[in-house]
């Protein structure tokens, strides 16, 4: 019995480790299960993050498309697009994503429409200082003299050479337009005085169906008059020059049949240019944003005269921020120079005499631009941002 008991003890001792083995295996299983659960949770979190990222990306694309539509609609009315309007109508409560939405909208505008959003710049106070003008003429203008206004416009990105080629008349296109009757022929004896913009040009760009060429031409002339008068012209002087062009205060502005304003006088047109940002009207010596932030230029000089205000000559006209961003002083100078230097008829490019005439015309245009620059009392500025 003693041996049996001893053997039983030995067998029981030998079986003790086997009794603890299931405990170790169970703990390992718990640890393995925990690791698997953590991996599953990590994978699930990653999937949720990817889904949220895709959702945010889709939201950015949608908001960018909304911004493009809003910009095109606003530009059709020639109205500036303000940052707070973008936040209200496009971004909503996610105003922090504006940089990304703006960048993606720019890509759509550039690749699809050949246009870009440009922030209008506020005029610096130094622009009214004669010493600053002298520095500008010497090329010493500081880059930090203008600041953003959080107001945007759409500007074409098409190359000027491409636009010039597209505007050149083509006999084949002209023949198709006249044959198919897509554009009515213009008759000087027509009783309808409101036929501006209906003349067929035979060019790729159908200007006769698009912009108001008559009113745009008047705008360019006004900007040129302001520029050659030292970038500022008194109200009376501008009125006197416009009268010589048969544009009195009540004279009608030539518009096409597609225009929303069929009866627009010179006074109303000038006020419209102020609202659109092409022109700025202020008291002589008054800084931009002075007088407690009161709005200026809301009443035309003719209205002042009716109210007994005989000091209308104390007001002056200057370029607005939209004119600087969309047209530029260099563009107006080239427009005036090309107009003053009479263009001659088409000549053969292989003709040496024609080449000499073209070279002489280019030299005359360059001299004319230099003269305009002197009249402007400073270096001409190109379109801002280019």
Automatic annotation (TrEMBL):
Residues 1-57, 121-142, 286-314 are annotated as: Disordered. This is MAGE domain-containing protein. Residues 122-136 have a biased composition (Basic and acidic residues). Residues 35-57 have a biased composition (Acidic residues). Pfam families: MAGE (PF01454). Residues 60-120 form the MAGE domain. Residues 1-27 have a biased composition (Low complexity). It comes from the Eukaryota.
């Amino acid at each position: 019995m003693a041996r049996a008991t001893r053997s039983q003890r030995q067998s029981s001792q030998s079986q003790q480790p086997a009794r603890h083995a299931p405990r170790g295996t169970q703990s390992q299983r718990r640890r393995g299960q925990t690791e698997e659960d953590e991996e599953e949770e990590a994978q699930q979190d990653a999937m949720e993050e990817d889904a949220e990222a895709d959702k945010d990306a889709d939201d950015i694309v949608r908001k960018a498309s909304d911004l493009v539509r809003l910009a095109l609609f606003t530009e059709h009315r020639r109205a500036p697009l303000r940052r707070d309007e973008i936040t209200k109508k496009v971004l909503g409560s996610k105003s922090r994503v504006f940089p990304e939405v703006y960048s993606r909208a720019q890509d759509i505008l550039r690749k699809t429409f050949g246009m870009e959003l440009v922030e209008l710049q506020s005029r610096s106070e130094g622009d009214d200082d004669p010493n600053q003008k002298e520095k500008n003429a010497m090329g010493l203008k500081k880059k930090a003299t203008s600041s953003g206004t959080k107001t945007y416009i759409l500007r074409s990105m098409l190359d000027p050479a491409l636009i010039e080629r597209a505007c050149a008349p083509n006999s084949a296109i002209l023949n198709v337009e006249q044959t198919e009757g897509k554009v009515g022929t213009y008759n000087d004896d027509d009783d309808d005085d409101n036929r501006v913009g209906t003349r067929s040009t035979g060019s790729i760009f159908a200007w006769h169906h698009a912009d108001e060429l008559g009113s745009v031409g008047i705008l360019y002339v006004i900007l040129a008059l302001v520029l050659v008068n030292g970038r500022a012209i008194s109200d009376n002087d501008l009125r006197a020059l416009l009268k010589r062009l048969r544009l009195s205060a009540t004279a009608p502005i030539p518009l096409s049949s597609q225009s929303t304003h069929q009866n627009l006088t010179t006074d109303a047109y000038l006020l419209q240019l102020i609202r659109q940002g092409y022109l700025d009207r202020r008291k002589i010596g008054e800084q931009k944003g002075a007088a407690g932030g009161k709005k200026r230029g809301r009443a035309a000089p003719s209205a002042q005269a009716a109210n007994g205000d005989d000091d209308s000559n104390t007001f002056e006209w200057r370029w607005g921020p939209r004119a600087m961003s969309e047209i530029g002083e260099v563009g107006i100078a080239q427009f005036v120079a090309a107009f003053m230097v009479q263009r001659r008829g088409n000549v053969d490019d292989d003709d040496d005499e024609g080449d000499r005439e073209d070279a002489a015309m280019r030299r005359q245009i360059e001299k004319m631009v230099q003269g305009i620059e002197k009249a402007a009392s400073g270096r001409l500025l190109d379109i801002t941002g280019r």
